[in-house]
């Protein structure tokens, strides 16, 4: 039995072994690090097929951490990332209008202000500066706090929780404790918003009578966590990749359209964490799959599939738009994708324009990469200019 190839040898590239599987066994039976077997799906067309097909359920949990058995779950009220249609659609319809390109573009001046303030603060610090702590992490934190209407001073409550969730070494107990702390904090915020609804998204949702407090808390948890660690890791790892590729960096600084999507495709920071469970017997890519069996999609393998675009292993920020799956596909495709693209564009362009001489302050091999993480990224990125 093949072991899941889940270790990146280069922070920018998919784990070695996935390309081979994609070419020869695009639906392969593999063992997970914590034990248990799943179907690993690596071809772009087949990954999209799984993510769009309602016969595959999102109500699954675990599979990686030491105490996390792979299992079907009953989603908590409001946790629509774990839900299947039609329940999933009820929440999506409620939230999608808040995340359209037009709505998100209203945040542009706010994001530009946050980015400029963080760059000002960075400029005042003694060098070298840790780009992750001083820029990549605070920018998305502040943006999601402003969007929801959660005071930024309270960010430690969810930054800790987001880290615990994204760390595959966290035990089930640690995850549950982090979730409980975050839920307790948000329950207080929701109560305050019900009393006196503020101008943020949480305030708007608190005005609705068709959402319970529990649903509101869970929606807020999901948005805080999903919108935080992902974007932060893309800013940090994206900056490091561009520092390795001066030609591409120059194009981003000049404002290349579509650079955010190409960085998302190339880095595929969310990978090998999206499980689905077959609700009935079915056939995928000629492989028979039984009801109750699990599939794991590799977004990085799909995004480097030669069938997706020419020369898929090359970073080309001027590449025409691709149908990459770095933000998922189908009904669960990232709710915050327009916001993520906008944040990435403003943050990276702002950073590269402010510090034309930006460079890493340690040899590239010494930049600490987050091992054993559900979302790929850097622990720290010491930079100077
Ligand atoms: C670069 C940053 C981001 C990446 C790479 C990313 C990636 C993804 C992926 C791959 C999914 C699909 C999950 C699945 O099918 O099970 C997803 C879903 C989701 N994302 Fe993002 N995301 C990012 C930023 C954001 C932001 C900024 C927000 C919120 C403001 C957000 C909120 C969500 C939510 C709520 C879902 C669940 C959608 C659903 O189940 O219908 N994400 N994201």
From TrEMBL:
SUPFAM superfamilies assigned: Cytochrome P450
Pfam family, one: p450
Family to which the UniProt record says this protein belongs: Belongs to the cytochrome P450 family.
Protein name: Cytochrome P450
């Amino acid at each position: 039995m093949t072991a899941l190839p889940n270790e990146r040898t280069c922070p920018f590239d998919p784990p070695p072994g996935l390309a081979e599987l994609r070419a020869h066994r695009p639906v392969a039976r593999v063992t997970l690090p914590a034990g248990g077997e799943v179907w690993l799906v690596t071809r772009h067309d087949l990954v999209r097929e799984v993510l769009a097909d309602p016969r595959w359920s999102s109500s699954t949990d675990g599979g990686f951490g030491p105490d996390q058995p792979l299992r079907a779950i009953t989603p908590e009220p409001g946790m629509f990332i774990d839900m299947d249609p039609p329940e999933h659609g009820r929440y999506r319809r409620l939230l999608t209008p808040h995340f359209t390109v037009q709505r998100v573009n209203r945040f542009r001046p706010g994001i530009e202000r946050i980015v400029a303030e963080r760059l000002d603060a960075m400029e005042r610090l003694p060098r070298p500066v840790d780009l992750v702590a001083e820029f990549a992490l605070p920018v998305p934190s502040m943006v999601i706090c402003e969007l929801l209407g959660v005071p930024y001073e309270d960010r430690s409550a969810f930054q800790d929780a987001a880290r615990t969730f994204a760390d595959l070494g966290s035990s089930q107990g640690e995850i549950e404790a982090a979730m409980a702390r975050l839920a307790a904090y948000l329950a207080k915020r929701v109560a305050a918003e019900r009393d006196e609804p503020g101008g943020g998204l949480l305030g708007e949702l608190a005005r609705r009578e068709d959402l319970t407090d529990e649903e509101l808390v869970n929606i807020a948890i999901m948005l805080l966590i999903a919108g935080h660690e992902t974007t932060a890791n893309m800013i940090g790892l994206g900056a490091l990749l561009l520092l390795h590729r001066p030609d591409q960096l120059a194009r981003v600084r000049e404002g290349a359209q579509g650079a955010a999507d190409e960085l998302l495709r190339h880095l595929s920071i969310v990978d090998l964490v999206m499980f689905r469970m077959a609700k009935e017997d079915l056939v995928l890519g000629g492989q028979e799959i039984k009801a109750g069996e699990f599939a794991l999609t590799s977004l990085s393998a799909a995004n480097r599939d030669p069938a997706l675009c020419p020369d898929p292993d090359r970073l080309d920020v001027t590449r025409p738009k691709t149908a990459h799956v770095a933000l998922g596909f189908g009904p669960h495709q990232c709710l915050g994708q327009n916001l993520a693209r906008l944040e990435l564009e403003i943050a990276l362009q702002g950073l590269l324009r402010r510090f034309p001489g930006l460079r890493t302050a340690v040899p590239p091999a010494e930049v600490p990469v987050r091992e054993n993480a559900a979302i790929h990224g850097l622990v720290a990125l010491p930079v100077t200019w």
